[in-house]
Design brief:
Blueprint: H1 2-35, H2 40-61
Length: about 60
Amino acid sequence: MINKNSSHMAGILLTLLGAMLWGICGSCGQYLFQYKEVTSNWLVPFRLTIAGAVILILLLSV
């Protein structure tokens, strides 16, 4: 019973963390588009490359 409860709490915390990071990412993207004149043709591949690298690092560390 304790293990199920802790897994449930971890799921809630990870969901909240993901939502906060999504919001921060949107604000940062808006700033880059408006004030730094970054285009989506540059930003999207950059974000995907960074995300892929993070996933690979996490998989290699397991």
